[in-house]
Inverse folding.
């Protein structure tokens, strides 16, 4: 008698752990096989740029699986990289030459740090993506006096905050005119620059890195224009690239991520995808977007689990992003826009965004720094497409 | 269903408030999670489960 093929998840991170947890909660009792290229068991990523570097958490505390110790139907294959996909035979090809057959497949291979190949290969130049990267960076920090972070994205800025708290002199170099431009847009970036300036961290914007100084170990970062910033550690945080190379030749539609509908289905009916690797249609906006946030990864994983048991949930969430820098919680729901209204609340600034300022304007996003209740309330307004007038009125109550 | 919250674990992400605004809030003074209903109505179950699942630090536990 042929053995039923398992449900296979390729990727051993947050999406894999959440899919497994949600499947079991939905009373799915079939076999699930998680295939991960990591040697570590699936772990949570946000603490890698914060608590792990501050020495507050240990790797064991980041583990996500098993969600339920009694779950004997879930198998984890560690150290197994997927190198190809055969959708006709329904097999995932692994680096060791073997293959895993699936009944249905969830692609959750995430993303990896974008490299800067133009930088010389000197000691002290680091990237931060994996648990191993974080452990290495944490071990290196005590010996560092000057740190330069290339890229004012949220990973770079979170590391800046932790390093600064440990007494390191930190400079952040960013090519765009403002920090966190990809998420906050140009209008609210100055709030982040101010936050870091208050803690003694310079964020140099519109600054281009021309090269590094040093022969074996890095000694400095040279900017276009000639300035050299001393550095005995350089962290590069210039974005992430979806891990889709292994799908070449599979026939799946891939375009800056695996393309999915608003329920996580790819161009093949037996294959789903979620998280950093996936470009989903959002039912609220009607647009496809690839989101690299913890929040949407767990949302999408939950929707895929639901789809796998025959459900019909769609991804229509108002986007939500958070970043912890110093003691400040930076939270954005929705998205940034060119029109802004700012209120200084006792807990910090709150900014509402719109695309226009006339009587037809609706709120498209709310940003709060140090005011989680405001952003939670703001998310409801954004979800309801509240009028700009109503939004401005609400802000006076904060 | 019983709702248990751990304010000392709470890190004020407010995901729970977003998912289930009738079941959770953040204390105005401390900023930590407050369960508004210890035993939710069945009509709230789905939202409360979503709220518990959305907590990045797992500060909400449900006994079902």
């Amino acid at each position: 008698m042929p053995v039923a093929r398992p449900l296979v998840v390729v990727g051993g991170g947050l999406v894999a752990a959440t899919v497994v947890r949600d499947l079991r909660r939905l009373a799915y009792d079939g076999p699930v096989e998680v295939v991960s290229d990591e040697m570590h068991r699936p772990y949570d990523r946000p603490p890698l740029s914060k608590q792990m570097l501050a020495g507050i958490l240990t790797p064991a505390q980041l583990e996500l699986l098993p969600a339920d110790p009694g779950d004997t139907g879930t198998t984890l294959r560690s150290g197994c990289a997927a190198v190809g996909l055969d959708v006709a035979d329904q097999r995932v090809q692994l680096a060791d030459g073997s293959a895993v057959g699936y009944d249905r497949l969830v692609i959750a291979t995430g993303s990896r740090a974008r490299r800067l190949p133009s930088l010389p290969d000197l000691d002290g130049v680091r990237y931060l993506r994996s648990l191993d990267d974080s452990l290495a960076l944490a071990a290196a920090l005590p010996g560092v006096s000057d740190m330069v972070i290339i890229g004012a994205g949220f990973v770079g800025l979170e590391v800046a905050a932790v390093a600064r708290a440990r007494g390191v002199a930190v400079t952040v170099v960013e090519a765009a005119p403002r920090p966190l431009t990809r998420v906050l847009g140009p209008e609210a970036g100055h709030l982040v620059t101010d936050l870091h300036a208050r803690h003694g961290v310079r964020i140099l914007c519109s600054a281009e890195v021309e090269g590094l100084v040093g022969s074996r170990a890095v000694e400095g970062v040279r900017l276009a224009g000639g300035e050299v910033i001393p550095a005995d550690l350089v962290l590069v945080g210039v974005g992430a690239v979806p891990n889709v190379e292994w799908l070449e030749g599979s026939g799946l539609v891939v375009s800056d991520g695996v393309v999915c509908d608003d329920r996580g289905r790819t161009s093949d009916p037996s294959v789903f995808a979620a998280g950093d690797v996936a470009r989903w249609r959002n039912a609220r906006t009607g647009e496809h977007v690839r989101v690299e946030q913890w929040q949407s990864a767990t949302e999408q994983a939950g929707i895929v689990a639901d789809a796998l048991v025959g459900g019909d949930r769609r991804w229509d969430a108002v986007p939500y992003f958070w970043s912890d820098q110093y003691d400040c919680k930076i939270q954005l729901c929705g998205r940034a826009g060119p029109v802004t209204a700012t209120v200084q609340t006792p807990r910090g600034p709150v900014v509402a965004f719109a695309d226009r300022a006339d009587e037809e304007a609706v709120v498209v996003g709310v940003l709060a720094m140090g005011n989680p209740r405001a952003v939670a309330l703001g998310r409801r307004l954004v979800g309801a497409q509240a009028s700009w007038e109503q939004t401005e009125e609400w802000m006076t109550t904060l | 269903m019983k709702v248990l919250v751990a304010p000392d674990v709470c890190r004020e992400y407010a995901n729970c408030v977003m998912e289930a605004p009738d079941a959770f809030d953040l204390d105005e003074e401390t900023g930590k999670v407050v369960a508004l209903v210890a035993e939710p109505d069945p009509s709230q179950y789905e939202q409360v489960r979503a709220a518990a699942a959305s907590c990045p630090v797992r500060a909400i536990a449900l006994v079902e």
